[in-house]
Amino acid sequence: MEIDDGGDELALSQEPDEILSESFVVAESDSNSSAYLVLDNDADKENIEIGEEVVWEVSVINLGNDTAKNVKVYDQLPDGLEYVSHTTTKGTFNPDTGIWLIGDLAVSDGEVFLHITTKAVAVGEMINKAYLTTDSLNLNNETYEEEEIDVEDSDDDDKDVSKSIASAKMVPAGNPLALILLSVFGVFTASFKKFKR
């Protein structure tokens, strides 16, 4: 399959599993260069409730000898998560296609990041899968990374009980100062009678 210069054809015409099977493409001009790209994919929370947000951190670093050409990460969000926003430290991300187009990644670029903020709209196990591709020879065969979170239903019954407790009114039970004074007076009187004998 040919990849256009923009690189978008790859994700639009292939399923994620097909991208994984074609984890790198060696261009003729780059056949002697090699990169060692490391992909990471993490979430800032493991357990959330519906309506809460989670931030996914996808990162790539080149630990090889040469610049990696035309680096892309495919990260299509799973069903049950709604896209809110994103930031990148290098390249551009299209939330509609799930393509993070990093471009050329030199060793000197260090680790580059994509942060995607999402909102949970369904319950269940959510697995975010990221796939890495490059036009250069990637000496690292691990070009797939996934992270899992659990989304639980918010427990409205507990919230209703908390509201009931918080809104409950205190019923006056008398004057506590008078009860305290009576108790002290009773103890003092009993002690005084023993002392007198």
From TrEMBL:
Superkingdom, natural source: Archaea
Is the keyword Calcium in the record? Answer: no
Question: Boundaries of each DUF11 domain copy?
Answer: 37-141
Q: Name one Pfam family in it.
A: DUF11
Q: Where are the bilayer-spanning segments?
A: 173-192
Q: Which InterPro entries match?
A: DUF11_rpt, OmcB-like_DUF11
Which keywords accompany this UniProt record?
A: Membrane, Transmembrane, Transmembrane helix
- What name does this protein carry? Conserved repeat domain-containing protein
Organism of this sequence? Methanobrevibacter millerae
